[in-house]
Amino acid sequence: MSVAYEWERIVAWCEKHAPVTAAALQPGSTADVVDKCEASTDLVWPGDLKDLYRVQNGSITHDDETGLFLGSVLPDKFLYPIDVAVEVRLALLESWDDTIYDNPDRYAEDEMDQRDRDDAGTAAAMFIPTFMPFAGLDEYHYFTDTRAGALRECVTEYGRDTADGGGPIWASISVMLAAHADALENGSTVGVWKPLVANGVLEWEVDA
């Protein structure tokens, strides 16, 4: 299982069944761009995250002229372009810096550093520097956990109201992509979401 292989499954399916969505997918970033963005975060990115950006760099979500939705390969989130992912991470960290500063009775001054030292997959109840987001919508994001431990590179959702309390969802980005590729090819579900195509656009509906 690899990011490149699972991504190709998704692209091939979209080209055949959801060509509007396929056309909106953006080509991957160069190795230099990936390395530069990685360095800017002071993290060592898991191989799957770097591979994800080598095969794609987000997608165009809406037509500029008509405003029509062009679909998404994820049910309730969009894959972030690499520069957006870096910006989202910084914004979330700045928000939590402010929260910790404003609540000294609730959080230790070095609270984020303490949570960074926990094993990967351990709930932080906040957004911490070792989390690297790569997809999202509104105040909900998927991130890969770069902390050390058996669950390093697991994919977890960070939410405005729940933080990372739901725990890891997939063991890695490649596992996540495989689950979505399986759902597309088999017409099955990812969680509660089932793929639906209308006028060449890949959408997802809750499977009642």
Comma- or semicolon-separated keywords:
two-stranded antiparallel sheet; five-stranded antiparallel β-sheet; globular; 208 residues
Number of helices, counting only DSSP H or I runs of 4 residues or more:
7
Distance between the termini: 30 Å
Which geometry do the CA atoms define? globular
**Low-pLDDT residue intervals, each spanning 5 or more residues:** none
Main sheet properties:
5 strands, antiparallel
The whole-number mean of residue pLDDT values reads 96
Radius of gyration: 17 Å
**How many strand segments?**
7
The share of residues in extended strands comes to 15-25%
Strand order, sheet with most strands: 1-2-3-4-5
* SS class: alpha+beta
Helix content: 25-40%
- Note the run of SSEs as H and E: HHHHEHHEEEEHEE
